[in-house]
């Protein structure tokens, strides 16, 4: 009897382990010669998943929109790319009831909207003819049909950014579109949702030190505005749940998570000791409704991903580190989550991967996901603070017009495992460390170095995550006046100083 009981326990353990192995997985999508990156993920009505981002040529001669569909086991179904563009990037996606999707993004300063069916066939497409350089950030469904979009503009004639919000019907026709600007100026939208009273709530940042909530009536007019002061802030994401609104934003050089009622009144505010930096592209932390109550947050944090469960009362339940540059997350049925992100990650050079790739990590309810995930600790505390009244002015924007994109198939490969890790130095190299100040940097940085190491200066170079040279100088004066980084995207870079005597190297984070 005892032996039989032991055998049954062993069988039960084996079944449990086998079930966990089936439920969790880590996979990588990649192209044989070109780079692919993901920015957003959605679950389609046919129980599959669709993600969007961009594809780049082997010599970075173009960047163009990318759409990829796969099933809940992570098996590739199809992928599409847009031809004949110079710089196009899809930034968000909204599933539709017919198993299709609304895809939105930016194309050389224009907004682009595509309605595709479940096979990736375009049913209609629109772009804007607004007089501005537009960055698309978010899309949300509207009660009764249609959707709203939000982002920001940086017009050539007006250097300060303005928020834009537009209402679009199910056929892609514009209902209304407005710009919004605050008294602070330099305004950027991060996300938007529709509230139970059918008004829109937009989160954003005014300048660099004010997080705002902008409430709009159904015709686009301003209803109310609230602001929250911070040393540095940037709006990330918003979600709506039965118990209220959750917002994620940069707060005091960390992460802020706020819970509010539907009138925008703060119920609690929590600061997390999480940074945010994406390596290739502009990725915002995302929040979704947790399967067992509360929310799940995903964040790209200086070369890897963080995934956290926060309860309805603001307490931190668990936290996981993900081996990818995290982009977005969705629920998988009632027993787990699917995180997507980008690679390769920065590190020592092992097997060189020429071009960026996309990683998938399927976890269980507690964020456990096998070889590409491990537990982490995140410091967190409640903050006592409240919103103040803000002020925004609205003005009419332009219209949308018909657009005929050239969509073609893009064959992708896939494999089991984690995204690659690369770096600009080999494992067996041990260069002297290079001290960079400040680090993370914003617009510029300087190198702190002993005078003896300046002898026989050869050159200074900066390489991005893929090892691509993005800056080079043979003039020693760059060491004394500092290096301007305003043209570099946020992310992780390697700075290499070469002299006839030695080679020094350091990693630089650029965060804005």
Q: Looking at CATH, which topology of the largest domain would you report?
A: Methylamine Dehydrogenase, Chain H
- Tell me the number of structural domains: 2
Overall form: globular
Number of strands: 45
Supply the CATH superfamily name of the largest domain: YVTN repeat-like/Quinoprotein amine dehydrogenase
**CATH 2nd-level architecture of the largest domain:** 7 Propeller
Radius of gyration: 24 Å
Mean pLDDT: 86
Count of helical segments? 2
How do the strands line up in the largest sheet? 26-27-29-1-36
The stretches of 5 or more residues where confidence is low (pLDDT under 50) are 1-21, 348-353, 424-431
Largest sheet: 5 strands, antiparallel
How much strand? over 45%
Distance between the termini: 66 Å
CATH class of the largest domain: Mainly Beta
* Helix-residue proportion: under 10%
Which structural class matches the secondary elements?
mainly beta
Structural account:
With 512 residues, the protein is mainly beta. The chain has 2 domains: 23-416, YVTN repeat-like/Quinoprotein amine dehydrogenase (Methylamine Dehydrogenase, Chain H, 7 Propeller); 425-510, Immunoglobulin-like (Sandwich). It has 2 helices and 45 strands. The strands form 10 sheets. The protein has a 5-stranded antiparallel beta sheet. A 5-stranded antiparallel beta sheet has the order 2-3-4-5-35, with no helix packed on it. The protein has a 5-stranded antiparallel beta sheet with strand order 6-7-8-9-34, with no helix packed on it. The protein is globular. It starts with a helix and ends with a strand. Residues 1-21, 348-353 and 424-431 have low confidence and may be disordered.
């Amino acid at each position: 009897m005892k032996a039989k009981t032991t055998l049954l326990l062993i069988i039960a353990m084996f079944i449990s382990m086998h079930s966990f192995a089936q439920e969790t997985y880590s996979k990588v999508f990649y192209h044989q010669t070109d780079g692919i990156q993901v920015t957003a993920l959605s679950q389609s009505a046919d129980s599959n998943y669709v993600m969007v981002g961009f594809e780049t040529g082997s010599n970075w001669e173009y960047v163009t929109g990318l759409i990829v569909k796969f099933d809940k086991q992570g098996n590739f179904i199809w992928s599409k790319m847009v031809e004949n563009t110079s710089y196009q990037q899809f930034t968000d996606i909204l599933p539709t009831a017919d198993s299709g999707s609304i895809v939105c993004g930016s194309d050389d300063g224009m907004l682009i909207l595509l309605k595709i069916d479940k096979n990736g066939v375009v049913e209609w497409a629109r772009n804007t003819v607004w007089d501005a350089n537009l960055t698309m950030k978010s899309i949300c469904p509207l009660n009764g049909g249609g959707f709203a979009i939000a982002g920001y503009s940086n017009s050539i004639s007006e250097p300060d950014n303005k928020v834009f919000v537009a209402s679009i019907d199910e056929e892609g026709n514009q209902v209304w579109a407005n710009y919004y600007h605050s008294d602070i100026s330099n305004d950027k939208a991060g996300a938007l949702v529709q509230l139970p009273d059918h008004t829109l709530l937009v989160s954003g940042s005014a300048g660099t030190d004010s997080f705002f909530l902008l409430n709009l009536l159904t015709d686009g007019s301003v209803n109310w505005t609230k602001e929250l002061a911070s040393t540095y802030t940037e709006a990330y994401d918003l979600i709506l749940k039965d118990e209220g609104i959750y917002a994620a934003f940069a707060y005091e050089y960390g992460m802020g998570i706020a819970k509010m009622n539907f009138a925008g009144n703060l119920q609690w505010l929590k600061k997390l000791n999480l940074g945010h930096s994406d390596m290739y592209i502009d990725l915002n932390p995302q929040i979704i409704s947790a399967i067992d109550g509360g929310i799940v947050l995903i964040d790209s944090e200086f070369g890897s991903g963080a995934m956290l469960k926060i309860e309805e009362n603001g307490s931190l339940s668990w936290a996981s580190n993900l081996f990818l540059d995290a982009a977005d997350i969705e629920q998988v049925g009632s027993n787990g989550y699917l995180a997507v992100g980008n690679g390769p990650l920065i590190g020592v050079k092992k097997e060189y991967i020429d071009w960026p790739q996309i990683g998938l990590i399927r976890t269980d309810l507690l964020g456990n996901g096998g070889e590409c995930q491990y537990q982490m600790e995140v410091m967190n505390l409640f903050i006592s603070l409240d919103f103040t009244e803000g002020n925004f002015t609205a003005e009419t924007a332009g219209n949308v017009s018909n657009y005929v994109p050239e969509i073609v198939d893009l064959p992708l490969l896939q494999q089991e495992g984690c995204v690659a890790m690369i770096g600009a130095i080999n494992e067996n190299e041990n260069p002297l460390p290079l001290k960079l100040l400040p680090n993370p940097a914003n617009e510029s940085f300087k190198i702190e170095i002993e005078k003896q190491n300046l002898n026989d200066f050869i050159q200074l170079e900066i390489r991005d995550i893929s090892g691509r040279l993005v800056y080079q100088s043979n003039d020693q004066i760059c060491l004394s006046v500092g290096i301007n980084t305003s043209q570099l995207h946020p992310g992780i870079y390697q700075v290499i100083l070469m002299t006839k005597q030695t080679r020094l190297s350091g990693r630089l984070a650029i965060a804005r």
